[in-house]
Amino acid sequence: xxxxxxxxxSELVAFEDDIPGFERLLTGVGKIPAAYALTRALCEGEYxxxxxxxxxxxxxxxxxxxxxxxxxxxxxxxxxxxxTFGEHVSLPTRVxxxxxxxxxxxxxxxxxxPEAVRLIRGLGAGLVDMETxxxxxxxQQFGVPxxxxxxxxxxxxxxxxxxxxxxxxxxxxxxxxxxxxxxxV
Length: 185
What we know:
Blueprint: E1 2-6, E2 22-26, H1 31-44, E3 49-58, E4 67-75, E5 94-96, E6 102-106, H2 114-121, E7 127-129, H3 132-142, E8 146-154, H4 160-183
Helix pairs in contact: 1-3
């Protein structure tokens, strides 16, 4: 059995409630709800793979709309003891999925201004979201393989919050098509 994971119900609007070979988990938005929900699920069940779907903001001008595999995640809302932006006091700076793809920066706020984008770009990320780092980290603690597919919903600039509400359904349909192609269901 595999586990299909998304943060927000609207990201799964194009996905049927029952998909053969998959159980479904809705985590809630942000790192703490995501970590809690996935930890509970992995304590209660055994899964051969975690498949995360959802949206992300693009902060790299070379990244257009579409679906992207995530190779690694960093955090953009932490600082180390020495004040280094993007470093946590005890967690790894970067967590990896083991797949080829993009680096995403995770944080507990919706990125929608040019100054934040500039700072986060400096960490080496091309996308931003609010859960991926936590989900990869938890999967690693349990030794469960994880794949993360993110659909670009916005450019993470002024107005991105309002735009997300408009485009999330389209993103869900794009993710469902990619999911069907990869998993055959």
